[in-house]
What we know:
With about 500 residues, the protein is α/β, with parallel strands linked by helices. The protein has 17 helices and 22 strands. The strands form six sheets. The chain has a seven-stranded mixed beta sheet, with helices on both faces. A six-stranded mixed beta sheet has the order 9-8-7-10-11-21. It has a three-stranded antiparallel beta sheet with strand order 5-6-22. Strand 8, helix 7 (about 180-190) and strand 9 form a beta-alpha-beta unit. Helix 1 crosses helix 8 (about 205-215), helix 3 (about 80-90) crosses helix 4 (about 95-115) and helix 10 (about 265-275) crosses helix 11. Nicotinamide-adenine-dinucleotide (NAD) binds next to helix 8 and helix 9.
Amino acid sequence: MTTNIKNYINGQWIESKGTEYLDVVNPTTGETIARVPAGSKEDVEHVTDTAYKAWHEWKNTPAVRRVQYLFRMKQILEDNVDEIASICTRESGKTFSESKAEMIRAVENIEVACSIPKLMQSDFSENIATGIDEYFIRQPLGVGACIAPFNFPIMIPFWFMPYAIACGNTYIIKPSEKVPLTMTRIFELIEDADLPAGVLNMVHGGKETVDAILEHRHISAISFVGSTDVAKYIYQTGVKYGKRVQAQGGAKNPVVVMPDADEDTTVRIIADSAFGCAGQRCLAASIVITVGSAGDSIIEKIVMAAQAKKVGNGLSQGVDMGPVITRESKERIERLIQKGIDDGGKVLTDGRNIRVDGYESGNFIGPTIISLPDASSEIYSTEVFGPVLCLIHVENLDDAIALINSSRYGNSACIFTNSGNAARKFRNEVMAGNVGINIGIAAPMAFFPFSGWKESFFGDLHGQSMHAIEFYTQTKVVIERWHDEWTRKF
Ligand code: NAD
């Protein structure tokens, strides 16, 4: 029998007050593995009241004590990597090693947040005028919430949550309804960290739950990660209700290959970037732009590397790539591939109609590469979010940069070259917030902000690092006067 997932509110597992449930489907086998609440406004009312009450005590718990819970959380996650990673693989389809890599990035963020006693320190100026001192204090905002996407069920809530609670906020995580099991298991395990009830909560659901979060008067800050249209909606609605919002959206990431790039390294890194996690990474390479005399030989090698990828169950040894998340997603990707062909694209390797023995009901698409005559096709400008790489050729680096800068997205852009000048020009001129130089996935470490630009990000302060701390605190400036004659008598 499939289990109904519960919410975690005030330190307890509680059934949703909504009556509707959605199936959670294993994308490798097509089996329903659990049922998740479709969500309700009442659940959000309940969780927010709880978190708001807990905040009053938590904000005055000394930072050095708050981080002790995070140290324990880190240890618990590290002790249970394999179990959490296998649940993640089961519900998301990514390979076991990709799930484990997510855990490492999640834990990294806890480690950075553990420095909060130092990171929350402020500035003090004595004698800004005679007998007057001025300083500021960073104070938490109240209740924060994270609305997460399906593609990194472990890592993404940790771009925000450890910082938010370390700063003295209380928190609500809403996982993607497509992958609710991983975070549910993480919450079960981290109960042993003994956080005070109400500090960290989880509520499941879809649009109704999100809308209730956006509107609730006691939620002060929202961190969203997902597709661009929803990110824009979250940003605009959250701001309308007076909240602080950071909303990370979709992407279409270009990789420029210069004629002097080291071929073998470039090929290996591009193939991993484009087809790892079945292309469902917001930093995945999705367009390769070859420049000048860079061309046939490198393309031939990328095609060979794509064809060598073993597609299958992410829990099996030796598998490089799992399925995409849903049947609808698979159909959408296949439709976009066909559109690329109809628009004059040449398919160099076609992953449609792949057969994975034993997993006939899985949402598999093999690595696919399409060479495009120009940038006019829908597949060039649309985020595919699947294992599909488009190729395009330009004459020089200026043309490559101009092409990249004409995109609506600006999540990441990478260049492969041995020329310091080309790399420096690219770094300076390209309109993207995460830049890779001889790197295929320019994913910032936890002590740097995750810097999407353009329609890949709505807001001001990003996730991770000092940005997360500034996002989850507000500054209070204090100006004090203590006249000499008042203090002389002591
Ligand atoms: P999604 O936008 O469909 O869903 C994200 C979250 O929003 C989920 O929790 C979902 O329940 C909620 N949601 C969906 N539709 C909604 C609506 N109409 N109103 C209110 N809430 C809604 O995204 P997804 O398919 O889960 O994730 C894939 C997308 O996320 C891709 O576009 C990818 O590029 C993006 N992504 C971006 C980053 C980044 O750092 N920029 C990182 C990971 C994923």
